[in-house]
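Justification of resources, computational component.

The compute hours requested in this renewal are based largely on the per-chain cost of generating structure records like the one below. Each record pairs the submitted sequence with a full structure-token output. That output is archived, and it is also reused by downstream analysis tasks.
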Amino acid sequence: MAMNLPTFFKIPHLPRCFNFLSHNPLWQDHPWLQHSTFLIWLLVFFLDLTFISRACALRVFTLKKGQTVYGTLKSIKVGHGCTLLDIAREHDLGYNQITAANPDIDPWVPPEGTTVLVPTMFVLPMERLPAGIVVNLAEMRLYYFKTTGKGPSRFWTCPVGVGKEGYSTKLSIYTVLSKAKDPVWVVPPSVRKEETDLPPYVPPGPDNPLGKYILRFSRLSYGIHGTNRPWGVGRRVSHGCIRLYSEDIASLFPLVPVGTLIRITYEPIKVGWTDGKCWLQVYKDYENKIDNPLAKVLSGISACEQSIGPLKINFKKISEALKKQTGIPVPVACTASK
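The structure output for this chain reads:
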């Protein structure tokens, strides 16, 4: 009787290459091979776990003077049995980012072989801090900026889940009040009213929605923490806290000291510059806060001109970006030499 590949080889967030053995005819038709191959892949699996978590967690960039756009756009082919959520997590993106960039592809059952755009290119928030954490609720992305006297300044970034309708995190500046590993979730009374089967508190473990790490805010009971529901990253699902993939919070936790500033902002429209070009990145304005999107863009372009000089503006590209809201940065203006 053929031996099926164990379920842990099919964990959705792992690279698609771990799923291919169960569909390989050689594996299915030769039972003697299955046992030896299984042992080899079991070893590879555990040896590779550390590499996988490092590869997926927290993109890091060196800050460069005169540049506010970082990363690259790329595309990949959908593998067998792969969802857009699998691809998103492999590339440290949220559900909102992968679906906005690929609006015509079914996120749950994308056709095998379909080309998927992976939007790993970012325009920095305009309301950022010189040092500290910035969470852009509209983008559902966190940025951690760190300056050092000895080496170059850098920033780390990752996707986040944010507050659902009626529970949006209050826009303000906070500090990291405390840090905790294996936190106990003391269930707020308001949450217990909504979900009456919840206990007063939830101990550390797989049922704890805080995950393994938490950075607590200085007020309003907010926190930046992990999650036991990774599909919520890139969605509006929380009661105001900021949710990260487990591999991202595990990497962020040791980097951030107590006292670090946290700025919560809301920027569905971001404008930045690099290499003589001005780039526009537009996400859905789900809070309907932007009364005049074009004016917001032109204000950003004006800021670009102060840094790189007079620009030739492509209003057609601006109009398309504002209409489609794909979250993909597009060049909308350039210097005369470009």
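Residues 85 and 95 are 6 Å apart (CA to CA). DSSP finds eight helices and 19 strands in the chain.
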